[in-house]
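Hi R.,

As promised on Friday, here is the backbone we talked about, encoded as structure tokens. Could you run it through your design pipeline when you get a chance and send me back a sequence?
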């Protein structure tokens, strides 16, 4: 199914956790911040910290499972 979606122009980022939601001026979901790596267990940036990138989309789908931290 992923291949069919990609043929339609959908971008899929497997294995990349979202660390926060990005909201528009009207409170709508505009995208997510994804790919943030290197935080310490207490949440502070560690020595190898890499900030995530903002991904914006007309439609935003999250697949977090039953223990999702964003939805």
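Update: got your reply. Pasting your designed sequence below so it's all in one thread:
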């Amino acid at each position: 199914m992923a291949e069919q979606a990609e043929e339609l122009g959908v971008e899929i980022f497997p294995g990349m956790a979202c660390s926060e939601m990005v909201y528009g001026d009207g409170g709508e979901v505009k995208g997510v911040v994804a790919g943030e790596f290197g935080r310490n267990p207490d949440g502070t940036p560690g020595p190898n910290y890499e900030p995530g990138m903002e991904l914006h989309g007309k439609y935003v789908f999250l697949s977090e499972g039953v223990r999702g931290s964003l939805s």
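One thing I noticed while checking it: Helices lie at 2-7.

Thanks again,
M.
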